[in-house]
Amino acid sequence: MKQNLQTTFSTRQNMLSRDFEIYYYNDTYQNSHYYNVDNHTHNYYEFYFFLEGNVSMNIEGHMHPLKPGDVVVIPPAVHHYAILHDSKVPYRRFVFWISVEYCNKLLQLSPDYVYLMQHTKVTKHYVFHYDVIAFNALQSKVFHLIEELHSNRFGREAKITLCANDLILHLNRSIYEMEHPKSQHEVQNLYQNLLLFIEDHLDEDLTLDYLAEHFFVSKYHISHVFKEHMGLSVHQFITKKRLAMCKDAILSLDSITEAYQMYGLKDYSSFFRAFKKEFGMSPKEYKELAAQIQKENKC
Question: DSSP for the chain?
Answer without folding.
Answer: --GGG--------S-SSSSEEEEEEEE-TTT--GGG--SB--SEEEEEEEEESSEEEEETTEEEE--TTEEEEE-TT--EEEEES-TTS-EEEEEEEEEHHHHHHHHHH-GGGGHHHHHHHHH---EEE--HHHHHHHHHHHHHHHHHHT---TTHHHHHHHHHHHHHHHHHHHHHHHHSPPPHHHHHHHHHHHHHHHHHTTTS---HHHHHHHHTS-HHHHHHHHHHHHSS-HHHHHHHHHHHHHHHHHHH-S-HHHHHHHTT---HHHHHHHHHHHHSS-HHHHHHHHHHHHHHHH-
